[in-house]
């Protein structure tokens, strides 16, 4: 069955430090992969997505992610974290075909940023 | 700005009392989704509409129903809310289906007393 694993439930980084959030997926075909961010009490905002082509994708707010098929991973990175990046981050795989049209989310990683 | 709007943002209901959550969109997208997100968990798709075609997830309880009277509006009806239905309910839209981005509303937090 399709699934998404985010092994880190909670991460704390210092402001200005680099960040990497891990995501592993299980999917039989080439996946459609997404990273969303959710601030407290808010909906989800798309950071970036991968469908095909260049395996390094750039997103909003200075985030990037790299698709590695051999590792079934799609890790999110940012070279220098800002205090406003504190939020919950969800990795998702898209399932499409026929009447199926859904995102399967990981359980999320809560990011805290220290001054 | 084009957006997805959910009303109310916070809803309190009593055990067993029917409740309706509302979602509207100005994006003119033809697909609308309802997700349930329990505390500290991932959002989980309940169902979606592709235009007027309703697609229910296999594990969505019968207690949850949906209506889409027109392109702009979609409602989530919980016929007899239980304590386990307390959650954030997220509405999303996308242009067509497939791999198009889903745009999320801010959510409605439901409390069941």
Q: What order do the helices and strands come in, and which of them pair?
A:
The complex is a heterodimer of chains A (115) and B (113).
Chain A: E1 3-5, E2 10-14, E3 19-21, E4 24-26, E5 32-38, E6 44-50, E7 56-58, E8 64-68, E9 73-78, E10 87-97, E11 100-105, E12 109-114
Parallel strand pairs in A: 2-12
Antiparallel strand pairs in A: 1-4, 3-9, 5-6, 5-10, 7-8, 8-9, 10-11, 10-12
Chain B: E1 4-7, E2 10-13, E3 19-25, E4 31-37, E5 44-50, E6 53-56, E7 64-67, E8 73-78, E9 87-94, E10 103-104, E11 108-112
Parallel strand pairs in B: 2-11
Antiparallel strand pairs in B: 1-3, 3-8, 4-5, 4-9, 5-6, 7-8, 9-10, 9-11
Structure description:
The complex is a heterodimer of chains A (115) and B (113). With 115 residues, chain A is mostly beta strands. Helix content of chain A is 0%, strand content 57%. Chain A is built from no helices and 12 strands. In chain A, strands 2, 5, 6, 10, 11 and 12 form a 6-stranded mixed beta sheet that branches. With 113 residues, chain B is mostly beta strands. Chain B has strands spanning 4-7, 10-13, 19-25, 31-37, 44-50, 53-56, 64-67, 73-78, 87-94, 103-104, 108-112. Chain B is built from no helices and 11 strands. Classes of the chains: A mainly beta (115), B mainly beta (113). The A-B interface holds A 4, 32, 34, 36, 41-46, 49, 51, 90, 94, 96, 99-103, 105-108 and B 4, 6, 31, 33, 40-45, 48, 50, 53, 55, 57, 90, 92, 94, 97-99, 101-107, 109.
């Amino acid at each position: 069955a399709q699934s998404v694993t985010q092994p880190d439930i909670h991460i704390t980084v210092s402001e200005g430090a680099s960040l990497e959030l891990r995501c592993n997926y299980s999917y039989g075909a080439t996946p459609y992969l997404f990273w969303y961010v959710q601030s407290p009490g808010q909906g989800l905002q798309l950071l970036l997505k991968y469908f095909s082509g260049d395996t390094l994708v750039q997103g909003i707010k200075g985030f990037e992610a790299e698709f590695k098929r051999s590792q079934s991973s799609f890790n999110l990175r940012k070279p220098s974290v800002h205090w406003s990046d504190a939020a919950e981050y969800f990795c998702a795989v898209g399932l499409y075909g026929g009447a199926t049209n859904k995102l399967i989310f990981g359980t999320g990683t809560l990011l805290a940023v220290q001054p | 700005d084009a957006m997805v709007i959910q009303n109310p943002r916070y809803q309190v209901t009593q055990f067993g009392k029917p409740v309706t959550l509302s979602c509207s969109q100005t994006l003119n997208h033809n697909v609308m989704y309802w997700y349930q997100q329990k505390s500290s968990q991932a959002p989980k798709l309940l169902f979606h509409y592709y235009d007027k075609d309703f697609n229910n997830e296999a594990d969505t309880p019968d207690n949850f129903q949906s209506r889409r009277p027109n392109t702009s509006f979609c409602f989530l009806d919980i016929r007899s809310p239980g304590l386990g239905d307390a959650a954030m309910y997220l509405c999303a839209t996308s242009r067509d289906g497939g791999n198009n981005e889903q745009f999320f509303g801010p959510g409605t937090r439901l409390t069941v007393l």
